Each structure stands twice: as C-alpha cells, then as structure tokens.
Amino acid sequence: MNSTAQYQNNKAVIQISIIVALVAGLVACIQPANPTWSDMQLAEHRSHANRMRDEYRHPTETLAFFEVEPCNTVVEIWPGAGWYTEVLAPVLRSCGSLHAAHFSPASEVAYYRNSLERYKEKLAENPRIYDAVVLSVLQPPKFTRMITPGTADRVLTFRNVHNWLKAGTAESVFASAFEALKPGGIFGVVEHRAKPGTDLEAMIQTGYVTEATVIELAEEAGFKLVARSEINANPLDDTVHPKGVWTLPPSLRLGDEDKMKYLAIGESDRMTLKFVKPVND
Fold first, then answer.
1. CATH code of the domain containing 78
2. How many structural domains is the chain composed of?
3. Confidence band of 13 (pLDDT split at 50, 70, 90)
C-alpha cells in the first residue's frame, strides 16, 4: 500500500473511532449504565407531559419509601398507560425484573382491551427501555395469579383501589398481592384519599378511598401496615368536586369549566401506605 493510500486508510479509521466514541458518549448521557430513580426525572424516553406529573407523584421519593431496589423483582398492578412503568423499567432492566399485571386481552370490557393494547404498543415502540418487561394478567375472578407465588420482592399499585371497589374485586386483588410476595416483601399502595367516614358508595362514585378501608383490605389479606407517608399529600384538595377525583388534572373531566381553579389545586390528595407480608407466614 503506498503512503497516500495508507494515510487515507488511517484517516478513515480515526474518523470512525471518533464517531464511535461520540455515539457511545451520547448513549451514556441518554441512558446511564446503571440508572437510578433520580435519573428518570429527566430521562429522554419520558414525554414532557409525563414528567410534569412528577410534581404531584414524586416517583423518586415514593419508590424510595417503598424500598424498591434495582435488583428487585417488582410487580406493578394495572399499570394503565405506563406512567410508572417509564420510571421502573429502565432501572430494573439490568439486574431486577418488572412484571406488569395488566388486563386480559379477552376482556368483555372494551376499555380494558384498549388500555392493554396501548400499553403493549408503548412497550414495542421502545425496546431499548421495555424489552425486559414481563406482561401478565390480573383480572378477578378468572385471572388472579400475576406472578409465581412467593417470588416478588415488591408489589406496587398506584391509584387503583377505587376501581377494585367498584368492580367488587378488591379483596381478591389484595389476596393476589399477598400470594405474589415473598415473606418480608412489601406491598406499596398509593390511592386518592377520602375524608374519614366516607361511605363505600361515595368512594366508588368519587374515586376517593379512606385510609381505613385500604388498611382493612390489606390486613384481611394478611398484610401488616408498617409505615405511612405524606409524600403524595395535597392539602389544597378538599376532595369535594362535581366529577369526583376526575375533576382534577390530569383528567379535567369538566373541560374548560373552572379549569384554572382545578389546575391551581393540582392532582388529588393521596395516601401512601407501606405494608409487609409477615415472615412467619
């Protein structure tokens, strides 16, 4: 090879090396090798609209309160559109595992089927983040086993208890969560918080549930309450709204009617409860 050809070859090799280094650096910036909950605050795979919800949902603090670790086996019950999946999946991907207990594809309820399809599309659109998410079905009374019994370190649910009360399946879901966890495993619950003494029908209609109701359901399933947190509390929310919790953002069920008022309140007042499956069970 003459000197000119050798020079061109070396130049090409150097250029390729520089490009590879730049791409590697860019990937490292976009997705840390060992991402943390805090890294997810500004992660590029999350939409601006979803990141704006962090102000009310406090994912870093909430997951720390539930003692979720990167190497845990975690079940997220009814993940909906995947707001928390966006935070959980990248951190659990390398060492732990995320199991999404979603609706049945054969459900008679169109909303459930459509919700599952949108969630699956979300996973498929970004395999770099979601390729390790394991889908299962939790829809009592037919589907009650979301993971091999006794294998989950954490079972988490965010704003779903009112749905189970409405469907009459709350006891079954709490029992399924108990079955899924290892002894000593944690069941983390975030739910819209009703005023003490609110009756069941009002809870179903408004979406707000009393702490006493959630604690009773958990204890009947065998759990022990170990801690409460005000991480997701909102003192501006008096819980009295024309369309229940859905009056507030992000739903804003009334549309433009009093929109600024409800935006100023923000998302609902929420309980954050940590239960444990006793070791002696």
1. 3.40.50.150
2. 1
3. very low
